[in-house]
Each structure stands twice: as structure tokens, then as C-alpha cells.
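ok, trying the design again with the full structure, not the truncated one.
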């Protein structure tokens, strides 16, 4: 299975807690003003990478705590990324995802994204809003974005914040 990516960064310490493999997916339609990754927007850009190659990168790095799937908009590739996340979880690592969609928007199309959501531990939701940007925010760009404990939020059907 192929995943369309813009870039993959090994040993990232800025894309979530601990040491992470950061997968920047290609394609985003949110057009947030002030986006830091405009090169990820073009749906026809980027390059396809075999899921097995990403898993091999993870296997070769014993220091990793987890992977972060960001973008771009990961939920444009829900099906492919649910397979990747499932394999990562089997390795005992955690999965963090950044999306431009809000939790409420994702819940409105839950059937489409269910298999991916069920493999995610931590979700940072919502578009980047430059007027709400602060350098004091950990792991998010603007204060409208929330760091969500996905397992608990799905279980209790209400947003539960992830405790960092
Ligand atoms: S969702 Fe992320 S990648 Fe897409 S435009 Fe907004 S900040 Fe940029």
C-alpha cells in the first residue's frame, strides 16, 4: 500500500512527546492563512512511499516513542493511514496525528474515518489560525487547536484532552 508524502523526518523532537518519526502527508484543502507547510497542499504533488518502507524506518530506530502523521491533511488518506497506524501500534509505539479538521467535523463523517481514528492515540485538531498563534503552546500552532485523547473521547463520546 502506498502513502503519498511530502517528507519524512526521523528523530523529530518537535512533533509530539519523545522521539518520533514524523510523516508529512501530501495534499491539503484547508488553506489556513500563515500555514507553515504550503508545499504539502498540492494534491498532485509529493511522492508515493510504500507503507513497508515507513515501517522499516521505524524498525531500524530503537529510540522512537511513536510516529506523528501530519501534513498536509492526513484524513485525505484515511484508509491508507489506518493500515500504517495499525502496524505501528503492533510494534508497541504510539500514534499522534495532526489534522486541519475539527473533532466535530470528523465525527460528522465518522463512518469514513472510523478505522483510522481507532488507531490514533493523540489528535491535534483544527485549522491553524495566525491570530491565535503563540510560541507558549506546546505541540500546536494556535490556541483553537486541541490536543485530544482519542481513545477516551471515542469511549465517552465527548472531547477528552490528552494530558501531556
Ligand atoms: S491544515 Fe495544516 S497543512 Fe493544511 S493549510 Fe492548515 S496548517 Fe497548512
Amino acid at each position: 500500500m502506498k502513502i503519498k508524502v511530502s517528507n519524512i523526518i526521523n528523530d523529530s523532537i518537535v512533533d509530539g512527546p519523545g522521539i518520533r518519526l514524523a510523516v508529512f502527508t501530501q495534499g491539503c484543502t484547508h488553506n489556513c492563512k500563515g500555514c507553515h507547510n504550503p508545499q504539502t497542499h498540492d494534491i498532485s504533488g509529493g511522492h508515493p512511499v510504500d507503507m513497508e518502507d515507513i515501517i522499516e524506518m521505524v524498525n531500524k530506530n530503537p529510540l522512537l516513542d511513536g510516529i506523528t502523521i501530519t501534513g498536509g491533511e492526513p484524513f485525505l488518506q484515511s484508509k491508507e493511514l489506518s493500515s500504517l497506524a495499525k502496524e505501528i501500534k503492533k510494534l508497541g509505539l504510539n500514534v499522534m496525528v495532526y489534522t486541519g479538521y475539527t473533532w466535530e467535523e470528523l465525527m460528522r463523517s465518522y463512518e469514513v474515518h472510523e478505522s483510522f481514528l481507532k488507531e490514533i492515540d493523540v489528535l491535534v485538531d483544527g485549522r491553524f489560525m495566525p491570530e491565535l498563534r503563540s510560541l507558549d503552546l506546546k505541540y500546536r500552532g494556535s490556541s483553537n487547536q486541541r490536543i485530544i485523547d482519542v481513545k477516551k473521547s471515542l469511549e465517552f463520546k465527548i472531547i477528552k484532552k490528552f494530558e501531556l
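Keeping the full-length input from now on. The chain has a mean pLDDT of 97.
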